[in-house]
Amino acid sequence: MVACSNGRDALAAFEKGGIDLILSDLMMPELDGAELVRRMKSREPSIPAIIFSGKIKIYDKDMQADVFLPKGMYAPAELLERIRVLLVRKRGPKKSVAEPSTPEMSAAAKLAISVFAPEPRWPSAAPSL
């Protein structure tokens, strides 16, 4: 996982390669999430993208994100499921291989690029699904 504090740093990290999924806040300093996703998808159209927003509750089709989630309206488990689905869609179904003997961080957690403006990510009590 690559964490950046603004859109310009995220774009620079993306250009280095190795990113499988974009997870971005809509409102960020220097380059907003919608523009960040637009630029990344212009370079790699198949990259999955999720945008969060605490201010905007309605998805704008021009954002080019695959998923839009208003902050505080979904439990963390819902986010993880959306990440899993997008990565499966990009890579294809998981091949049957032996599970490692030690638990490891999920591929979705390792391979996402996460960009958040400084504000709380989740409310103290997330609504149940």
Q: Can you put this structure into words, describing what you see?
A:
- With 129 residues, this protein is α/β, with parallel strands linked by helices.
- The chain has one domain (2-92, 108-115): Response regulator (Rossmann fold).
- Helix content is 31%, strand content 16%.
- It has four helices and five strands.
- The chain has helices at residues 7-15, 33-43, 76-91, 107-110, and strands at residues 2-4, 21-25, 49-53, 67-70, 112-115.
- It has a five-stranded parallel sheet, with helices on both faces.
- Helix 2 links the parallel strand 2 (21-25) and strand 3.
- It starts with a strand and ends in a 14-residue tail after the last strand.
- 23% of the residues are buried.
Walk me through the topology.
Elements: E1 2-4, H1 7-15, E2 21-25, H2 33-43, E3 49-53, E4 67-70, H3 76-91, H4 107-110, E5 112-115
Parallel strand pairs: 1-5, 2-3, 2-5, 3-4
Helix pairs in contact: 1-2
